[in-house]
Design a protein that fits this description.
Elements: H1 5-15, E1 20-24, E2 27-35, E3 41-47, E4 55-63, E5 69-74, H2 83-86, E6 94-101, E7 105-112, E8 116-120, E9 124-130, E10 135-142, E11 147-154, E12 160-164, E13 170-175, E14 181-186, E15 193-198, H3 205-213, H4 215-220, E16 234-237, E17 240-243, E18 246-247
Antiparallel strand pairs: 1-2, 2-3, 3-4, 4-5, 5-6, 6-7, 8-9, 9-10, 10-11, 12-13, 13-14, 14-15, 16-17, 17-18
Length: 256
Amino acid sequence: MRASPLLMLVLVAGCKLPSSKAQLGPFNADRYEFAAPDGGKQYCFVFGVETNEPARLCGDGGPTPDHNGVLFEAVAPLPGNEFVEKVGAPLPPGYYLLKLIGTERVDAWSLGTLGMKEWIAGKRLLTVDTDAQHTTRVRVIDPASRADRTFEVKTTTSEFLPVRAPEDAALLLVQKNGGEELLLLEHPVDNPILTVSSVSEGKTPGNRKLYAAGSIDRLHNGVFQPPTGFFGHITWNGTKPLYDGAPLGPFEESRL
């Protein structure tokens, strides 16, 4: 017995996952919603729906500061998520920068796993990650030109706290646990240069003052963790940082 055309239509429609339209940056994407085991929700998206090379991603993201692209954090589909079966396999987990090619096509640039992220002057994405061998990678990423300038520094820490110079002319990264290691990124938009300094060496008045700020904590607790008020003591002379008015440094190129 053959199924009626109406029944066939119902069966085909029943196989299709319901979706809604979502606006992310310049993209009008198809969004699929799934229940998560913890009671929350997981979303999967299809960008460039009308093209022959759509980008499928599960996770979430937001527009870049200029709204010309999207920074997306992709995750693996949860168990029971029918996206793979009925829509297609998404891109692997990690961060992606998405931008339009023409009016419909999408460029999905994989950035890998990212730790600390900061937008600089609304034009560059700064990321800082440290691996198990204590190599810290500072990346200055240009979404527009797909340029990725990476610096590698040998450190003893895995986390840094950023201090910005006026108009993002420079960025000082201060060791979160210890406050001793400093990474200075100058001219991050036009010509990024990364140099390093250790305040425990006490080569300048600024370094000695900064190191002394944590001496009591080091004496009693073993580790100095710079409090919020600590960063108010850091000011700038152009791209050069000062602590309580005294120059920090010297900052030197790192050699692994």
